[in-house]
Design goal:
Blueprint (H helix, E strand, L loop, with lengths): L1 E3 L3 H4 L10 E3 L3 H9 L5 E4 L3 H11 L5 E4 L5 H8 L3 H12 L1 H7 L1
Parallel strand pairs: 1-2, 3-4
Helix pairs in contact: 3-4, 4-5, 5-6
């Protein structure tokens, strides 16, 4: 089973044929049913938030193995932070301290 993780605007576009059933990350019922039956969750994550929004959303609720296919994911963090300022600020404070968090945004 593959859970498509693109932003809403990209989910309407055709995907590659993976010879597997695909569901949208935004369909909570289907995602929870699918993950209840699997042995491991593997998240393919890169720097483009539009392609990985669903990974970021589900990872906190459903931990799994994360495969980063980009060395740098700062752009993804910045795009996510635009709608999650308080959480992003908390992450920055935790990792880099108050001064960095104040200067980031």
């Amino acid at each position: 089973m593959i859970v498509r993780t693109e932003c809403s605007a990209l989910l309407d576009r055709p995907s590659h044929d993976f010879n597997s059933r695909m569901i949208s990350w935004s369909d909570e019922k289907q995602v929870l049913e699918a993950t209840a039956e699997c042995d491991v969750l593997v998240y393919q994550v890169g720097d483009n938030y539009d392609y990985h929004e669903g990974c970021v959303t589900w990872l906190a609720r459903l931990p799994g193995v994360v495969c980063l296919h980009d060395f740098f994911v700062g752009h993804m963090f910045y795009a996510w932070a635009q709608k999650n300022i308080e959480k992003a600020d908390s992450v920055l404070k935790h990792l880099y301290g108050d001064d960095m968090a104040k200067s980031f945004f």
